[in-house]
Structure to design on (288 residues):
């Protein structure tokens, strides 16, 4: 399925030099990336790197694109005093009960009729996540943003939900922007990855190349730290000491220098140059 608005070769989403500031805090600095029609793109980085702010800006900056957003915590995103079916009706008026039950069924819910008539508190975390996905699909999106869609879920459900998003994307032709802490989740699932640190993209490229040969020390650390699939998603990263600084105090030069095992004097003084290696782009004073 292809949108009539999409011209051949033109990205569905193109972000150029995005900057978001709140007073002295600049949590997003000079971000550029694109999502092709039907593309599968990831943004990966630790908590506080600016991933969600970047993704949320797409609504404002791309009003012409139908975007559905699956939020981090389905229990907080669903309306607790409205039954699931009614919430999906609100998303797209004109859908019949049968069509909504069918959407719920397509997300793998075993008892879609019951879910249709249930309040969120009567459902498990996994069922709520599937209901959120059904609600997103009801909007017939050209782009589905899945912002850490697995955080609240157990391990088996995590994998199932990501597989579900994959198969629904293949079925409907929608593009997917996956936002996650876990570089391991993008392997085999996404085509292109943007690694974000301190409000900037520090490395980007085709997933296979970046995973096989990560060039930026932050990407290398994230890859080593790929949590075992049963570790808590917000656990500290064993291979990268320290945490992401707050956005009103980004370090000088390369913002990663206080945590980088390869940092030299120049790293704290000067912003690193952007380097290209085939389709991979990274920003570091060292390494090729
Ligand atoms: N409205 C706001 N005013 C000031 N600072 C904000 C605002 N919204 C977000 N921030 C800050 O911007 C930074 C980036 O936030 P963002 O939610 O984009 O991070 P994230 O990468 O999605 O993190 P997580 O993985 O925890 O969801 C954080 O330090 C956050 O506290
Ligand atoms: S520029 Fe320096 S501090 Fe930054 S990632 Fe490269 S080596 Fe590390
Ligand atoms: Mg976030």
């Amino acid at each position: 399925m292809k949108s009539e608005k999409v011209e051949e070769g033109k990205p569905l989403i193109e972000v150029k030099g995005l900057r978001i500031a709140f007073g002295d805090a600049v949590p997003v600095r000079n971000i550029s990336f694109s999502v092709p029609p039907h593309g599968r793109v990831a943004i990966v980085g630790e908590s506080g790197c600016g991933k969600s702010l970047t993704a949320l800006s797409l609504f404002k900056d791309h009003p012409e694109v139908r975007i559905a957003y699956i939020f981090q915590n389905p229990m907080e995103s669903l309306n607790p005093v409205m039954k699931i079916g009614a919430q999906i009706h609100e998303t797209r008026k004109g859908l019949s009960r049968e069509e909504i039950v069918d959407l719920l069924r397509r997300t793998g819910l075993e008892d879609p009729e019951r879910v249709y008539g249930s309040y969120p508190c009567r459902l498990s975390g996994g069922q709520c996540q599937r209901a959120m996905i059904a609600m997103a699909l009801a909007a017939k999106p050209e782009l589905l943003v899945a912002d850490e869609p697995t955080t609240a879920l157990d391990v088996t459900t995590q994998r199932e939900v990501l597989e579900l998003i994959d198969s629904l994307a293949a079925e409907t032709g929608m593009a997917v922007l996956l936002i996650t802490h876990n570089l391991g989740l993008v392997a085999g699932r996404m085509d292109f990855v943007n690694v974000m640190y301190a409000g900037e993209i520090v490395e980007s490229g085709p997933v296979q190349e970046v995973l096989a040969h990560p060039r930026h020390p932050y990407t290398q650390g994230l890859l080593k730290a790929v949590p075992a699939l049963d570790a808590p998603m917000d656990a500290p990263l064993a291979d990268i000491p320290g945490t992401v600084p707050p956005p009103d105090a980004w370090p000088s030069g390369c913002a990663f220098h206080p945590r980088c095992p390869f940092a030299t004097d120049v790293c704290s003084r000067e912003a690193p140059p952007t380097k290209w290696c085939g389709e991979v782009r990274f920003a570091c004073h060292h390494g090729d």
Observations:
- The radius of gyration is 20 Å.
